[in-house]
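Teaching note: in complex prediction, the entire set of molecules is handled at once rather than each chain in isolation. The prompt given to students was simply: 'Predict the structure of this complex.' The entities are:
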Amino acid sequence: MISYILRRLAATVPVLFTVAVMVFLMLRLTPGDPAAIIAGDNATTQQILDIRTKLGLEQPILQQFFIWLGGLMRGDLGESFFFRKTVFELISERIEPTLSLAFLTIVLAVAVAIPLGVLAAYRQGTWIDRVVMGFSVIGFSVPVFVIGYLLVYIFAIQLGWFPVQGYQRIGNGLGPWFRSLVLPAVTLSVIYIALIARMTRTSVLEVLSEDYIRTARAKGQTEMKVLFQHALKNAAVPIVTVVGIGVALLIGGVVVTESVYSIPGLGRLTVDAVLARDFPVIQAIILAFSFVYVMINLLVDLSYTIFDPRIRY
Amino acid sequence: MSAPILDIRNLTVELPKGADRKNAVENVSFAVYPGEIVCVVGESGSGKSVSSHAVMGLLPKGQLKATDGEILLEGEDVLQATSSRLRALRGTRMSMIFQEPMTALNPVVTCGAQIDEVLQIHTDLGAAERKEKVLAVMESVRLPDPTKLFDAYPHQLSGGQRQRIMIAQALVLDPVLLIADEPTTALDVTTQAQILKLIAEMQERRGTGVLFITHDFGVVAEIAHRVVVMQRGKVVETGTAMEVLKNPQHPYTKMLINAVPTLTPPVREERTGALALETVKLCKVYGGGGFFQKKREVRAASDVEIRVRRGETLGIVGESGSGKSTVARCIARLIQPTSGGIVVSNIDIANLPERQLRPHRKHCQIVFQDPYRSLNPRRSVGASIIEGPMNFGMSEAAAIAKSRDLMNLVGLSPDALDRYPHQFSGGQRQRICIARALAMEPEILIADEAVSALDVSVQAQVLDLLDDVRKKFDLAVLFITHDLRVAAQICDRIAVMQNGVVVEHGKTADIFAAPQHEYTRALFEAAPGRNFQFARVA
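The expected output is the structure of the full assembly:
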């Protein structure tokens, strides 16, 4: 088990290196000059050239890469071209809103989706099943921003229960923090609820026809416990896999939601950095995302051993 | 006689609309008295399992429904009981064990916890008392080292141990009625003998009434006090075990008893055809392990040497884990042997790479155990049959013509080629599997437990068919089985395997007359109903 974890951690190094090379090359091979953007519309060629020299963009690409890589090794992510701050500073400012939103979203999605999925499986073919599955189709097909603006209109503008926009730092108190995140988290969770509920239903349905479910009933076990103790644990592996994929996708999903609700998180930062061709920031964010992605995959794989004793590494 | 603990009166259970008949069971009446083992015998579809599930209130909701009659458990009609009353009765007054102990136990819960669950549901005992009681019942079903097995998961136990856990779980609260639904069908013969003994012993010691569902008259002879024979949802005969086995009245009972293959092999002529297959020191080792792990190796087959002539049937007999299927799979090159040679038509195919192996694939074909799972459910049977020949360059028209001939040969209508596997019965599907294998014009036919999943009457027909096609096409047949009775009927020679080693090898008649190896003798000892001379009635 320990050796498995060590091997998996060691395997992240080549993955991250490959990502680093690809991101670096792609950014420099796509059109768009950060110096021109920083200099503004009325800048002279000389001004742009000066900025390029200052940013180190006139050096050969290979040299630029090794300078950046050397910095990375020392834990230095470099300095933003645009925001005049270190990348580390930028990311640490922006990470709290994004983590908060992602965390609330996934908790909400799991808490709603799993009971719904189990219920739909248990009542397969009845109206309950059809309602849950119908919701799931809608959840998949309605775009995030539509749900977002709809919720804002109803719950923020008409009813006034939640703020329309903005984010309250957790340091300002749990209440305001939570209130500022309810609508974004609901918005973002809809598609994950649809996904996880569907997977839960399928997985539980399969398990419900297993012999040990009949055995549990033959012991006189109640239906609730048959479903949630016997069936759900056996159905867990595919569900956890989907939740893991969900968390990974979530990182991409926050971009739109953060824009709709003006939340100053990593999603917004990514958009801004891309528009400004802010190479160091883009590189660092993508590297960080891929690191998180690899870690989530590892955690998901490890969680299998909790749910199924037959899986051993 | 005292009052029955279970009294089923005129039970009728309705099938959903569109089934092949209206009722799954119709007007069924029988009783189980205290301290008695009643065997309900019948083939698949006879309604024997439906009746027992009805007693437990475990009929699948919305599909099967008891429409008439009553089921009295100690005088209380369980058909009228509310669902909470039913739950209270299950595990306390009546309990059930099932056919396949691997799937009947929850794979992600420890064995101890699964027995403990019964106590948690039905008693107010504290954790320590419960554990004590669980260990005691585990001890009483003769599980070795109960404290260790308490924390083990089902997959870490052998099949026999798992069934003991099931029995412990069923008996921990001393129910008056134990329903055993084919509890030994999935087990090896030697394990089956132990479990039958255990059930009889527990039943006698605790005075439990046992409703024992089986299709196997050998088991009936071994364990039953009284017998109920069911056919297509109706009880056709009841009586004491002696009466029914020695003097069956109903033609269906007679047919079932006649279909039990005897342990006496028929006289067979010596086969002198050319050598079709020979293995030389065939070994297969599973496992290994990598950099960081400990090395764990399982020698599934070691130094196996067998020879089969054209026109000859060689039986490989052994229990699960004996390596008999591994040998078959190596010979068909579905898996790569670790070392040794497999000589087919003078070429050693043991280590041929896939590209060179392809021409040989058609020489050797397999018929698998479970005809329900070995045909692709989404393809018509015709498509399954012509696929192989067409892979080897036969035109579609020729392949279809051939498949029509083969359907006739295996006793099915060629018009059925457009149908899908689920539209056939188990026996018909196995005939289709045989036709599929024959379409490749093989020289070697491997039958891997090919009749084990079939009812006895169907089993006899499929065995006849296998023997017919062997003669007709001069096939070398490798017949893998765990069942000595079946082996006696069809095999010219037999190789007995244990733990990957062939322990005994010889002519069927010789081995049955005087088994040499102690394991072979143990297998004979364990064959259910071996001491019973079944009535042979016309």
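Point out the following to students. Residues 35 and 49 of chain A are 8 Å apart (CA to CA). Chain A has two domains: 22-76, 95-307.
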